[in-house]
Every structure is written in structure tokens, then in C-alpha cells.
Amino acid sequence: MADSHAKHHDYHLVDPSPWPVLASLGAFVMAVGGIIWMRSLGGAEGLFGARGPTVFFLGLASVAGVAYLWWRDVVREAHKGDHTPVVQLHLRYGMILFIASEVMFFVAWFWAYFDAALFPSGVTPLPITLPDGTVAPSDTSVLGLVGRNELTGGQWPPVASDAFHGTFDPWGLPLVNTLILLLSGTTVTWAHHALLENDRKGLVWGLVLTVLLGISFTALQAYEYGHAAFNYAGHIYGSTFFMATGFHGAHVIIGTIFLFVCLMRALKGHFTPKQHFGFEAAAWYWHFVDVVWLFLFACIYVWGAGIPATH
């Protein structure tokens, strides 16, 4: 009878936890706050008036707090020995699927960009032949093609206007940021190999350099945004540019935090050469961020470059 509850398998049966429910509630509050905030920016006065930002950041703080406590429990489970080789394999499968979903997320923004870049005047619909043999005129306004032609001038990059004065020079700051991310991919790989060799000093320094490079990339991108010669609102180039590069910038920030947490854990001696999935997941995520930026740099900054704006 004493052995009736003993575990005779390699799988981890998770203990009851309040974190999924609390994370869902925090995300709901954050979403409601974001909606109220955006409606107030549009001039709408809701039930909470101008308290949208307060509600949003309250939800954000709740999600961040729950995430910390939830991942703290996951770390404790790993230290207890619950992450057997079988469980670690399944964790890797989960991370691979997560990165695959992130790839499809960025496919949407690349699709939007190339749809506008390859068809700046839109696609003229084919004429429709009626049963009586007459040809019905095509209605381009249905597809919004007239508006796109007015915004781009029928070319890509668009013609200069009040909302668009030119593109970035790809061989200036964008190239510097590219080199920074490529170097950060090298330093995180150095940290990984140092961990496999049980070189704790190399692991720590590799993570320190990677985090610093991630912060540098974010700072330079913020500077770049501040000197953009186009706006987000009211222009198709600005909206596609800032959505694609902006979401990548958000992923860089998330990846930097991810690696910083790994650095703190490395300083506490959490990782071993045989068990370090937390660090491995962060390294995979960072390499994914690097690859996405290479596509952004090649497609948006280089291939889609026009006349650089003068300041």
C-alpha cells in the first residue's frame, strides 16, 4: 500500500497550480485596458474614461508577476528531477512548435509588405463577361485599389509626400544593427559551447555580451525610429515597415529578457552540461530572432530601398 502512489514512468504529472487561471485573468484585464486606451485615443469616452492606460498596465503587471511565479515553479520542478529525458524531449518539441508559430506570425507581415511592394497600384480585376455577351466594367474601388495608387503614386518605394520623404539608407544604421545581431548570435553560441564544456566563466561572459548586444540593438532601433522620414499612420509604407520591424524589435526585447534570466540562473549555478533546457530554449529563440532580422534587412532595407531621406 505504501508504494501505491509511487511513480513508475518517466512522465511528469504537474501538481495543481493557480497560475493558468491567474494568467488568463491578467491577460483579460490587459486586453480590456488596451481596448479602452485605444478607444479613448480615438475620442470615444467609455465607462472608465481616461483610465485605459492604468487598466492596461495593471493587467501587464499581473501577467508579468504570474509569469515569474509560474516559471519559478518550473525551475523548482527541474531541480527536483521531474524533468526526465522524456520530459525534456517533449519540452523541446513544444519550443520547436512555438518557434514555428512565430515564423508564421512574421509571414503575415512579410506578406503585407510584399503585397504592397509588388503591387503598388493594386491588381486590376479582369472584366466580367455577362451572359448576353456584353462586358461589365471592372470596379477597382471595390478592392481599394484607387486608394493604394494615391498613397504610393503607383511605385515602390512610394513617391514623396507629406507622410513619406524617403527610406532609410540600408548601409548605415541598419547595417550596424545587422552586425550587432550577427555578433550576438556568435556570443550566445559561445556561451552554449562553454556550458557543454562546463566552462562556467565562458557561459557567464557569453551571456553578458549577448545581453549587452541585445540592449544595443534596441537602443539603435529606437534612435532609428526617432529619425524616420515617414509616419506609421496614414501611409502604407510606414504601416508595413513599422509593423514588421516593430514586432521584431519586441521579440528582441523579449529575447534579451529571456537571456538575462538565463544569466541570473547561470550565476546561481543552475545549468549543467546535461540539463540546461531553459538556456537552450533561449538560444533557439535568439537565433530565430537573428534569422528574421536578416530577412527584414534583405527584403525591406536593401531590396525595398529608395532614395534615402536627407535630414
Topology:
Layout: H1 19-41, H2 52-80, H3 85-118, E1 128-129, E2 135-136, H4 145-152, H5 173-196, H6 200-226, H7 236-267, H8 277-303
Antiparallel strand pairs: 1-2
Instruction: Report strand order across the widest sheet.
Output: 1-2
Average residue pLDDT? 85
Q: Give me the count of strands.
A: 2
Instruction: Write down the CATH class of the largest domain.
Output: Mainly Alpha
Concise summary:
The protein is mostly helical. The protein contains 8 helices and 2 strands; from the N terminus they run H-H-H-E-E-H-H-H-H-H.
Q: What can you see in these coordinates?
A:
The structure is a single chain. The protein has 311 residues and is mostly helical. The chain folds into two domains: 10-82, Helix Hairpins; 84-120 and 155-303, Cytochrome c oxidase, subunit III, four-helix bundle (Four Helix Bundle (Hemerythrin (Met), subunit A), Up-down Bundle). Helices cover 66% and strands 1% of the residues. The chain has helices at 19-41, 52-80, 85-118, 145-152, 173-196, 200-226, 236-267, 277-303, and strands spanning 128-129, 135-136. Strands 1-2 form a two-stranded antiparallel ribbon. The protein is globular.
